[in-house]
Specification:
This protein folds into 2 domains: about 1-45 and about 100-210, 3-Layer(aba) Sandwich (Ribosomal Protein L4, Chain: A), CATH 3.40.1370; about 50-90, no CATH class. The chain has a 6-stranded mixed beta sheet, with helices on both faces. It is elongated and about 90 Å long. It has helices at about 30-45, 105-120, 135-145, 160-165, 185-190, 195-205; strands at about 1-5, 15-20, 125, 150-155, 175, 190-195. With about 220 residues, the protein is of the alpha/beta class. The chain contains 6 helices and 6 strands; from the N terminus they run ββααβαβαβαβα.
Length: about 220
């Protein structure tokens, strides 16, 4: 069993919550995490780049002048990539095809990334994480009390407008819902802070893939 510390918003440790590593896949799958991150970044690209090749550039295909006897270097048609205004040699063509990444693999990669964070003692739980009004000063003071100075991910069990508005002005700090977390976002920041209800949801959610085959 692994223990995750629980803190109050004032930064005082109030206890621990145990979690079975099997709930998060049992072991850290580094290759799967890499696949998930590469796929996530690949999907962020628009993929609509399109440049003109020699067949797309306007101009005659006639040879500019005869091969020999002019004193000039040999030259073909005007559209050749070696001449100014010609087509690109290996021009990009869109739209590109995007390789899919199955949902079960995405979730297992997310859980494996969270498990790696727990092993590194970079995960903490804040009991009673809520705000009566969107005050950035309150969240900033909480992070300072918890010793989080380089940014973090705040994982909530549901959308909280006050927490979102209070965190959006803090550098390198984002609020996410547990269901929307992915391996890239988990590893993007050094610390990940769960609300107690969010961590309980993560542990009890059947989508955490308890009993996934070790070969995945």
């Amino acid at each position: 069993m692994l223990a995750v510390p629980i803190y109050s918003m004032a930064g005082r440790k109030t206890g621990e919550m145990e979690i079975d590593p099997g709930v998060l896949g049992g072991r850290i799958r580094a290759k799967l995490i890499k696949q998930a991150i590469v796929a996530y970044l690949d999907h962020q690209r628009q993929g609509s780049a399109r440049t003109k090749r020699r067949s797309d550039v306007s101009g005659s295909t006639r040879k500019l002048y005869r091969q020999k006897g002019t004193g000039n270097a040999r030259a073909g048609m005007l559209r050749t990539p070696v001449r100014r205004g010609g087509g690109r040699t290996f021009g990009k063509r869109g739209p590109r095809s995007v390789k899919g990444f199955p949902k079960k693999m995405r979730r297992l990669a997310r859980n494996s990334a969270i498990l790696a964070k727990i092993h590194a003692q970079e995960v903490m739980i804040v009991d009673g994480l809520s705000l009566a009004e969107p005050k950035t000063k309150v969240v900033f003071g909480m992070l300072a009390a918890l010793g989080v100075g380089s940014g973090c991910i705040l994982a909530m069990h549901e959308r909280d407008r006050n927490v979102f508005l209070a965190t959006r002005n803090i550098p390198n700090t984002e609020m996410r819902i547990v269901e929307e977390l992915n391996a890239y976002e988990v590893l993007l920041r050094r610390k990940i802070i769960f609300s107690k209800s969010a961590f309980e949801q993560l542990v009890s959610d059947p989508a955490t893939l308890r009993g996934v085959e070790a070969s995945v």
